[in-house]
Design brief:
By secondary structure, the protein is of the alpha/beta class. It is built from 22 helices and 11 strands. Nuclear GTPase found in germinal center B-cells, where it may inhibit function of the activation-induced cytidine deaminase AICDA. Reduces somatic hypermutation in B-cells which may enhance genome stability.
């Protein structure tokens, strides 16, 4: 493969000998059918329809790109409009089909995360499983038939699951010991941050889904701890994994739930569920003794397990929903989920001594995975085809022979209108972000009155300082944050700011929500701005002689949607930085305090470190530490507002300049892409048909599910 610069001196693109061939090769039908076999027949039909739309769209874009490149290939000077167009086409052609869906399995040591993944992928002992000991030592991603995210320095290959599992063992399992306490074998897990496993295409897990085994509540290694947080934030779905015997409480379980809810605030997560594992574990005599009298008699272990599972679902769903409602808006997507709690048993999935395969709820989790991928695929293809249609509208309009004598006048009118609407948008965003001021102030007031109690809870141990000295030193060396393999995660900065987060969380989530419009939400203001511009474009188009279905008017309407769509991605990326600005501010202000405490050694070092921390926090609070954190978060909001306004004005200015460039002012001999435009228009119309077909298939599938009989009892007797 050779590298060359494009005709515009932009970033180099890899170029092969068949440069003018279609960049994305068409998949063979057999490969496509193999990838879809994980889905039921009804969903297969819908996916094939959408993939066909995407494939044909890529082919149209590729043909258009080839024609334009050939038109300008030997020219020394290429107008900016054509440069913009060709680079946009190339970016869309090279755009990945869709980003993977990351499903994070987030749980404490021994909760059964690895066992659950093994059951879902149908490989009994693939990831290490070892009772109560700590097995998985680093973040492990498991996917089916899709490429990894990171560039690996170490590659392990095998066509047998057991052989690959043995090869992986030293990299992901903590060092095991023999009965005499000696090391059984050499493991190198401390050097490994991340492991990706790509399995062959599966009948159970669709391509494009990544299951992420996230160990514990962080890592004592600071770099791996930061990767731990980033991994959680990129997960669109989080399953909080809890052993049935630990689900009723405990600090570790609460910490996991809190971290998951924070991922909804700062990251990409839109769906949180509690997955209760090892539900086959039940001591029948003890259960019957504690069971309330008056209930229907229990005849077997199986009936007791099913009854207990149902009670867990009812109780934990209510508790989890209450917790989510305190932190998230009332109509946040996760609160509308039909299932917030799953009761699963990986052991019974394999043995089926007490429960059927369906009753282990492993198939139910797989079904939810498939549904998530199906929804994302439809949304991604719809956005892709719509954006491609806008580009073809623009390209075809460049060859229009229609002469508009007042063209520049109309564009100027549209630009003046845009400037007025941008001013209104800026005011609306200011009002939207102003909603944070009151909860921030209340949170700061609460933080000032409660910080000493919070600090005492973090620093005072009921069993004294024995063994805590080294832990506290590690906390100070890592600027207030330490994740131990044996103790609960310690984050002094986060603990001190928690009263502020308790106040701002519902408002913050409302501002950055997507989906349903709401009074506090940012996105509806951007949507209103988009619709006002599109209506103005329609009005000017009709008044100026652009026909109702003209390419120019349609291009402007489609392009404004693409601009605002890109802006939404920018906002989501900035959300995490804004949310974490409070803890980052506290950590920065206490940095010297932590450094001073970390240097203390000798007699009563632990108490002396605590004193330094207490005095340092007292001093910073007196000097306005919490108020500075508030100001820094508000500054982050102002920066986001300024960035939105700047991007909107710049993108629309470029769009209008491009739309007004026509005929001699653009390029005299631009390639004719009329046939590609007609094909793209046909594909765009097919989107509506595909959506309607999907709705009909869904209705039929729901009818068949309601009509199908349910199985009862295990399918196999115990061995």
């Amino acid at each position: 493969m050779a590298e060359t610069k494009d005709v515009f001196g932009q970033e180099p693109h890899p170029v092969e000998d068949d440069f003018f061939e279609e960049p994305t090769r068409k998949r063979r039908k057999s490969d496509r059918d193999q990838r879809f076999r994980v889905f039921p027949s009804v969903e297969q039909s819908s996916l094939k329809e959408y993939e066909k739309l995407e494939s044909r769209t890529r082919r149209v874009l590729s043909n258009t790109y080839q024609k334009l490149i050939q038109s300008v290939f030997l020219d020394d000077s290429v107008p900016n409009g054509v440069k913009y167009l060709i680079n946009r086409l190339l970016a869309l052609i090279e755009k990945p089909t869709s980003d993977p869906i990351y499903i994070g399995l987030f749980g404490s040591t021994g909760a059964g995360k690895s066992s659950l993944i093994n059951a879902i992928i149908q490989q009994a002992m693939f990831l290490p499983v070892s009772g109560e000991s700590i097995c998985t030592s680093c973040i492990v991603q498991v996917s089916s038939g899709c490429c990894g995210q990171y560039e690996a320095k170490i590659h392990l290959l095998s066509d047998q699951a057991e052989e690959l599992s043995n090869k992986l063992d030293p990299y992901i399992r903590m060092q095991r010991r023999d009965w005499d306490g000696e090391a059984a074998e050499m493991h190198i897990w401390p050097l490994i941050k991340h492991v990706e496993v790509t399995l062959p295409k599966s009948d159970l897990i669709p391509e494009g889904v990544v299951l992420v085994d996230i160990p514990g509540t962080g890592d004592f290694n600071s770099k791996r701890d930061e990767m731990w947080k980033k991994t959680i934030d990129k997960c669109s779905v989080i399953w909080v994994i809890s052993d049935v015997e630990r689900v009723s409480g405990g600090r570790a379980h609460e910490d996991l739930l809190n971290e998951s809810i924070k991922a909804c605030q700062r990251g990409l997560c839109r769906d949180v569920a509690l997955v209760v594992t090892k539900t086959d574990k039940l001591h029948l005599p003890e259960y019957l003794r504690e069971r309330k009298a008056g209930n229907q008699a229990i005849q077997s272990q199986r009936e007791a397990v099913l009854e207990r599972n149902e009670m867990i679902k009812l109780q934990r769903t209510r508790i989890l929903k209450e917790k989510l409602e305190r932190k998230l808006p009332a109509d946040f997507k996760v609160l509308e989920a039909s299932d917030l709690v799953y009761t699963v048993s990986a052991q019974e999935y394999w043995q089926q001594a007490l429960l059927t395969e369906e009753e282990t709820e492993i198939p139910k989790l797989r079904e939810d995975i498939r549904k998530s991928l199906l929804v994302k695929k439809k949304r991604t293809v719809t956005k892709y085809v719509t954006e491609a249609f806008g580009l073809l509208l623009l390209t075809d309009s460049f060859n229009s022979t229609q002469k508009l004598p007042n063209e520049h006048l109309h564009v100027s009118d549209l630009w003046r209108f845009t400037e007025e609407k941008v001013e209104l948008l800026e005011k609306a965003i200011t009002q939207c972000f102003a909603c944070m001021e009151r909860p921030l102030k209340e949170g700061v007031r609460t933080a000032r009155t409660s910080y000493r109690c919070i600090l005492r809870a973090c620093l005072v141990r009921s069993k004294g300082n024995q063994g805590f000295h080294q832990t506290l030193k590690a906390v100070c060396l890592k600027n207030g944050v330490y994740a131990s393999r044996t103790l609960a995660r310690i984050d002094l900065n986060e603990a001190l700011t928690q009263p502020i987060y308790d106040q701002i969380d519902p408002v913050f989530a409302s501002i950055f929500r997507t989906g349903k419009p709401a009074g506090l939400a940012l996105m509806p203001h951007l949507d209103a701005f988009k619709y006002s511009l599109q209506e103005k474009m329609m009005e000017i188009g009709i008044r100026s002689g652009w026909k109702y279905d003209s390419c120019k008017k349609n291009f402007l309407i489609q392009e404004i949607s693409a601009i605002l769509g890109g802006l939404e991605d920018h906002i989501l990326r900035r959300k995490r930085r804004i949310y974490e600005s409070l803890t980052a501010s506290i950590q920065s202000d206490l940095k010297l305090c932590y450094e001073e405490a970390a240097q203390i050694t000798g007699k009563k070092a632990c108490e002396r470190m605590k004193d330094v921390i207490r005095r340092g926090v007292d001093r910073q609070v007196a000097e306005g530490m919490f108020e500075r954190a508030q100001e820094r978060m508000q500054h982050q909001f102002q920066q986001l507002k300024a960035g939105i306004v700047e991007k909107v004005k710049g993108s629309i200015a470029s769009m209008l300049a491009l739309a007004s460039s026509q005929g001699d002012g653009l390029y005299k001999e631009l390639a004719d892409v009329g046939s590609e435009y007609k094909e793209m228009a046909k594909l765009h119309r097919s989107l509506r048909e595909a959506a309607e077909n999907a709705r009909l298939r869904k209705g039929m599938q729901e009818f068949l599910l309601r009509a199908s009989p349910r199985k009862a009892g295990p399918r196999r007797t115990p061995l």
